[in-house]
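One example copied in:
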Amino acid sequence: MSSAIHDANRRQRQTCNDSDLRHAAQRAASSWHQLEAGFPKVAAEIRGIAEGSGLAPLDVYLLSGFDFFEGAPSSGCTTAACTIGDGAIVAQNWDAPPGTDRNLVLMIHEAGDDSLMMVTSPGTLGWVGMNRTGLALVTNDLMLDVQGHGLPTLAVRRILLSHGRACDAMNAVRQLDHRAGRCYLLGDAHGDIAGVEISPMIGAWPLSGHSIVHTNHPIVPATALMEDIEAVAHVYPSSRERLRAARAHTVACGEDMRRLLADTNGSPDAICKTASRREPTQTAFSIIFDCAKRQASVCLGRPDRSRYHAFTLDVATAV
């Protein structure tokens, strides 16, 4: 794993010039002080990765801080959450440039009350995940305003997963200092779901309902005013098409989620995505969290072609 982290660090440095790297490091250094002061457990994990890999903590933090870089490469996605009788289902298709799936792993971190599972890349805090209490999180990139300070989204995800209920995580997300725009969908073992769109300038705006679907543009009127429409059209031209397709689905159970994530209507730029000239990303993995069962069903690659594999957290003492 240490060599993979060094490779990730090297790739990151190769994709930007010295000036961009210097400015990103300055933003990361300021944010690192925030993280250490407010969320020492997350900072300690980054220091642990740094010690194990031989990199400096700031270099490791940058691996979880793609949003510290101007014009950072983004990955599109389609997310969904629904409440069922005895819990919630939370799901995502995670789209990225071809070949990204080679660097993805499912990490199951067994640490008592802090146990969780995360889909992650070498050296990062993780992309999506679920904790031992059954709180699950997925997320969408939004092309909104960006501020010069604040926490990167991968740190925010781990902070939210330190809570036990969707409502508690929602309360926490409103208090955080966010670097960039984002949507988060959450569900828990009690059957509650919640969503939020984040604009650093105007704050957190909730999404609610028995089911929620989302792609890569804001759907709340307030945050829509902050959207960089030209950037969305360039980076995520399929976002509105994918949302229309997702809203055509009934989402009320795990099987509904599988059908949604495997939807190829409008291919190549569909919910289940193939790389195209217009949008050169494809579905790298799909994941469906069953919050009551503390189970993640993971499909590496396109879910219309590949199988899901189920992984469960130990819930013997979960509360």
Q: What stands out?
A: The longest helix spans residues 18-38. The radius of gyration is 18 Å. The mean pLDDT is 94.
